[in-house]
């Protein structure tokens, strides 16, 4: 009789134990499901915040690039930096387009997410306003660059014209200098010849006892000198006589170690004042 009473109690205990296990399993499943939902929302939030951070980083890079852009007020020498400016403008435009795309993606994502939609919507609107402001600023920069490019081109043409004028002036100056040098050289040029009586006659320098009386003498027979430099003429002869007239006291006929004559012009201006041609007869 006692055994019959204990048996139902054991059965009741076993049923209660099974119900406890089932409840515990249901609680565990609910907990796991909740944790999964939390994890999914956290992942989604992290992805959204990551996209927002990328947009903000894009804005930072845009501001940095804008800081590298300087528009010189019509300075033609700044033209060399225009390529750098163009590169920064291109980078800004590309980054702005990337931000624009990311903001649109965030807008689409807000339609399906439940993660603090109101706050995220406000954040995205602020990003959109910032993008709009930067777009206007970049457009102003581009307009300034276009204006400066026109001014630089105009000044470049003026500089080219000035350079051409300077080149022409330098060419004229060079021609004038060459002309002056040629005139100066002519003014300080003289011609001399020495030879025997027969040699001078043969070249028609000496005719019937007169020297340089006719214009048909052989001018190529003379040697050209610069009277400022050439002040001594070696005659290679022990006999020498000046046939052209030159002021006394302006020269000396001296002998060298071989007893040969050397004409030393002591006063060139005076010596050549009467004639730029010198004829000396030697033996």
Question: Would you give an account of this structure?
Answer:
This protein is α+β, with helices and mostly antiparallel strands and about 280 residues long. The chain folds into 2 domains: about 130 residues, Up-down Bundle (Methane Monooxygenase Hydroxylase, Chain G, domain 1); about 100 residues, no CATH class. About 60% of the residues lie in helices and about 15% in strands. It contains 5 helices and 9 strands, in the order αααβαβββββββαβ. Strands 4-1-9-6 form a 4-stranded mixed β-sheet. α1 packs antiparallel against α2, α1 packs parallel to α3 and α2 runs antiparallel to α3. The longest helix has about 70 residues. It is rod-shaped. About 10% of the residues are buried.
Structure keywords:
283 residues; alpha+beta; Methane Monooxygenase Hydroxylase, Chain G, domain 1; 2 domains; 4-stranded mixed sheet; 3-stranded antiparallel sheet; 5 helices; 62% helix; rod-shaped
């Amino acid at each position: 009789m006692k055994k019959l009473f204990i048996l139902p109690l054991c059965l009741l205990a076993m049923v209660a134990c099974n119900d406890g296990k089932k409840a515990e399993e249901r609680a565990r499943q609910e907990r796991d499901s909740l944790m999964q939902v939390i994890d999914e929302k956290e992942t989604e939030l992290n992805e959204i915040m990551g996209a927002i951070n990328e947009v903000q980083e894009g804005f930072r890079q845009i501001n940095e690039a804008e800081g590298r852009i300087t528009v010189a007020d019509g300075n033609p020498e700044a033209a060399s930096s225009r390529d750098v400016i163009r590169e920064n403008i291109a980078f800004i435009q590309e980054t702005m387009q990337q931000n624009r795309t990311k903001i649109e993606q965030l807008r689409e994502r807000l339609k399906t997410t439940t993660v603090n939609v109101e706050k995220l919507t406000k954040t995205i609107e602020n990003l959109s306003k910032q993008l709009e402001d930067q777009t206007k600023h970049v457009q102003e920069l581009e307009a300034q660059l276009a204006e400066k490019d026109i001014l630089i081109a105009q000044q470049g043409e003026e500089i080219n014209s000035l350079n051409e004028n300077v080149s022409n002036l330098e060419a004229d100056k060079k021609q004038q200098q060459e002309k002056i040098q040629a005139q100066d050289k002519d003014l300080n040029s003289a011609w001399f010849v020495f030879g025997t009586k027969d040699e001078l006659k043969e070249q028609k320098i000496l005719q019937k006892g007169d020297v340089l009386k006719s214009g048909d003498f052989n001018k190529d027979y003379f040697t050209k000198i610069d009277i400022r430099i050439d002040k001594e003429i070696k005659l290679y002869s022990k006999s020498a006589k000046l046939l052209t007239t030159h002021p006394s006291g302006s020269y000396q006929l001296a002998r060298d170690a071989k007893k040969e004559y050397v004409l030393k012009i002591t006063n060139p201006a005076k010596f050549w004042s009467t004639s730029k041609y010198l004829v000396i007869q030697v033996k």
